[in-house]
Write a structure and sequence with these properties.
The protein is mostly helical. About 60% of the residues lie in helices and about 0% in strands. The protein has helices at about 10-20, 25-35, 35-45, 50-60, 75-80. It is elongated and about 45 Å long. About 15% of the residues are buried.
Length: about 80
């Protein structure tokens, strides 16, 4: 399923839904990704200052892929990604 992400709250909601669907508790998922349950709670509540790398690790563990839809007119961005 594809869902639009427009805020940190959207990411947190998706993470919470996936975690619950997989029957995982916050503290269990946090332990698997090497974080605390407080960090995971902050992510799920949409705190805007969480560390992106750690959020990406949570997404990976839950099997959630993240893509960016870069406009075709952004040639510099596209060229940079090919290196």
């Amino acid at each position: 399923m594809r869902i639009p992400i427009n805020s940190t709250e959207d990411i947190g909601t998706a993470i919470r839904a996936a975690r619950k669907q997989q029957g995982l508790r916050q503290d269990d998922l946090a332990a698997v990704v090497g974080s605390s349950h407080v960090f995971l709670r902050d992510v799920e509540s949409g705190k805007p200052t969480v560390q992106l790398g750690r959020v990406l690790r949570i997404l990976e563990e839950l099997g959630i892929s993240l893509e960016m839809d870069v406009p075709d007119s952004s040639q510099k961005v596209r060229k940079g990604l090919r290196r």
